[in-house]
Amino acid sequence: MKKTGNEMEFELEGEGHTFCNVLRKELLNDPNVEYAAYRIDHPLVGVPVFYVRTKGKDPIEALIDATNRIRKSTEEFMEKFKKAVSEYRK
Amino acid sequence: MEVKLLEYDDNHVRFVLKGSNPAFANALRRIMIAEVPTLAIDEVVFLENTSILFDEIIAHRLALIPLKVDPEFIDAARHEPSKYEVRFYLDVEAKDSPLVVYSGDLKTDDPHVRPVSDLIPIVKLIPGQKLVLEAYARIGIGRDHAKWSPVSACAYKYMPIINIDHSRCSLCGNCVKYCPRQVLSMEKDRVVIKDPLACTLCKYCETVCPNDAIRVRGDDTTFIFNVESTGSLPPDFIVLEAAKILKEKCETFLKLLKEIREEHT
Amino acid sequence: MIIPVRCFTCGSLIGDKWEEFMRRVSQGEDPKKVLDDMGIKRYCCRRMLLSHVEIIDEILRLEEARRKVSEKYRR
Q: SS3 of B38, please?
């Protein structure tokens, strides 16, 4: 992991496109984030390397906020899905 | 965000997810395919095999048999997958006439686990041939081997948006005639969209329209999900479990981030 | 050789459907109707049954023949 001011680069071991892509997308929804991207060097053995650059906000805070937003929408989805299933069963 | 179920039965569920984004839909899909755990035969010990199939082939066939498990068991076992192991045994001999060995011949001590179907042929034996083996089923995920994937078909598509410009439409009927999914129909003096959910966004109607009056686009905030289970787990459980796993991923990542934040201050 | 347990492409279970499919088709039913009836809707799964050639019975006959020959030579 490397961090300098408003830039941050880190490896996300044990993860792939599944989580990195939602994270990237969610980071870009933050107006304080200038740039967010990741790369996976090898499709089978590569470890994703994530890069975030903000417009002054601490990148860790930006990541925490983005992850919280994903968690919230996942919770919302679970709730809505459960409701939809019970409605369908009626 | 809105969720609406379209179809739901024992092994498949079709639902519309509204007000989301492709990244989220894709994460869910990927987790359902590769990260929701199930039980599958992982190790086979052959005591006797005089059948005409090699040990490896039989082991492979056994591994592919979907095993019906109690969803709660999977949910509990997810965090310590190595703790769970279910033993199966098979002891068949053809005596006087040829016989087929079926998945139903697999016996187990665990009453909560059984093959999805008892009618899957494993091998055929002629008189004198014998198959005796012990198999161990373990918990795993689709990323390691497809046998552990709980879904067969699992995909989503964008909600189709079909726009018909009635001022340009000459009522030639081409779009109605050529649509492979019969999405459109002709009613008196206009073309109407009969079944928008069936549209696969192939845009053939655009191609055959001489007046450029029809436009088909996908709405990338609304998705039609189709999840088909192999039978090992109920389809709605698979979807919920995938969401749960995504949530846990967020929580683990948050924990790591907070640790890093501590270090930096 | 013997019917695969799952569809090669999508992974849905088809092994248990072979015997019913074969029985009904050999009784003169239309394969298309049988497949629709059994709920096999995707063409990946349909081809698994339609294009399958069950040769295990022939291999078993060869095995029987081989066994007889080897018994004869043993004597």
A: strand
CA A6 to chain centroid, in Å, comes to 17
Using a threshold of 3 CB pairs under 8 A, tell whether chains A and C touch. Answer: no
pLDDT in tens, chain B (265 residues): 999 999 999 989 999 999 999 999 999 999 999 999 999 999 999 999 999 999 999 999 999 999 999 888 888 888 888 888 999 999 999 999 999 999 999 999 888 899 999 999 999 999 999 999 999 999 999 999 999 999 999 999 999 999 999 999 999 999 999 999 999 999 888 899 999 999 999 999 999 999 999 999 999 999 999 999 999 999 999 999 999 999 999 999 999 999 988 887 7
Q: B4–A84: do the CB atoms touch at under 8 Å?
A: yes
Listed residue (B88, B9, B77) closest to B37, CA to CA:
B77
Q: What is the largest CA-CA distance in chain B?
A: 79
B38-148 falls under which CATH superfamily? DNA-directed RNA polymerase, insert domain (2.170.120.12)
Can you list the domains of chain C with their CATH numbers? 15-74 (1.10.10.60)
- Radius of gyration of chain C, Cα coordinates, nearest whole angstrom: 17
Contact C13 B123 (CB under 8 A): no
Nearest residue, CB atoms, B249 vs list A1, A19, A61: A19
Length of chain C: 75
Instruction: Please tell me what DSSP assigns to residue C5.
Output: S
Cα–Cα dist B29/A80, whole Å: 17
The CATH code for residues B2-34+152-226 is: 3.30.1360.10
CA C3/CA C62 separation, integer angstroms: 19
Cα separation, B62 vs B41, in Å, equals: 6
> Tokens 């409605």, residue?
A87
Question: CB of B257 within 8 A of CB of A60?
Answer: yes
Question: Do the Cβ atoms of B5 and A85 come within 8 Å?
Answer: yes
| Inter-residue contact C13 to B116 (CB < 8 Å) | yes
Residue that is written with structure tokens 């496109």 in the block: A17
